[in-house]
From TrEMBL:
<dbReference type="GO" id="GO:0015232">
    <property type="term" value="F:heme transmembrane transporter activity"/>
</dbReference>
<protein>
    <recommendedName>
        <fullName>Heme exporter protein B</fullName>
    </recommendedName>
</protein>
<keyword id="KW-0472">Membrane</keyword>
<dbReference type="GO" id="GO:0005886">
    <property type="term" value="C:plasma membrane"/>
</dbReference>
<feature type="transmembrane region" description="Helical">
    <location>
        <begin position="188"/>
        <end position="206"/>
    </location>
</feature>
<dbReference type="InterPro" id="IPR026031">
    <property type="entry name" value="Cyt_c_CcmB_bac"/>
</dbReference>
<keyword id="KW-0201">Cytochrome c-type biogenesis</keyword>
<keyword id="KW-0997">Cell inner membrane</keyword>
<feature type="transmembrane region" description="Helical">
    <location>
        <begin position="152"/>
        <end position="176"/>
    </location>
</feature>
<keyword id="KW-0813">Transport</keyword>
<keyword id="KW-1003">Cell membrane</keyword>
<dbReference type="Pfam" id="PF03379">
    <property type="entry name" value="CcmB"/>
</dbReference>
<dbReference type="GO" id="GO:0017004">
    <property type="term" value="P:cytochrome complex assembly"/>
</dbReference>
<comment type="similarity">
    <text>Belongs to the CcmB/CycW/HelB family.</text>
</comment>
<dbReference type="GO" id="GO:1903607">
    <property type="term" value="P:cytochrome c biosynthetic process"/>
</dbReference>
<comment type="function">
    <text>Required for the export of heme to the periplasm for the biogenesis of c-type cytochromes.</text>
</comment>
<keyword id="KW-0812">Transmembrane</keyword>
Amino acid sequence: MNDTASPASGSPASGSPASGSPAAASIWRTARLVAGKDLRIERRSRVIVNQVLPFASLVMVLFAFALDNDEVLQRTAPGLVWLATIFALLVVVQRAFAVETADGALDALRVAGVSPPGIFLGKSLALAVQLLVLELLLIGLAVVLYEATLTATGAVLLVTTLLPATTGLAFVGTLYGGLAAGARGRETLLPLLLFPVVAPVLIGATRATEAAFGVGHAAIDEGWPWVGMLLVFAALFGVGGTLAFGPLIEE
């Protein structure tokens, strides 16, 4: 009885993981390679440091001159950080996909049969790393420029906000960057596609960051529901982008 039951009970358990494991391993291997390639390109070109950071910093400085009121600046600092981040996202995505289309790298990956989900996840990972570095620098600038204050519990909320917000922006930027990459007038098309979609991230991240900095006497607890919304947003675009990126770059 044991001899007949053993194969029947063991067969599904042993066959199931083996069928999905190679595909998943291939996707993550591709993602690591693509992310490494994009980050090496950034390290050599230093676009974030030489172009994007000065641009985003200038946006914040110009707002400081325009508002010219310490109380108003402290209240609007979180929103300005995320607004500058979204402007920077546009610049980074446009530049990244311009490089891919100019040298035919994206077409070469597609023709070679490289996993589109792996390409999407790899480019999203590289973009998220670049955005996270930029956001940390902009938050430091906001603390100095706008005299924003941050407590220990606020710092925990802020870090927890940065992760899903940055991931969501990276997923959206990669998805719509791939969509606009081969289109005519992509420089004007990408902002039209990108800005309406990232509005929930701008709102949610701003509200959570306001709670982290205690803007307007906001309590820390007020920020956590917004973090939950950011997590849902990142999950939706992560799954949707992974499924849709292949058909998009085939067009």
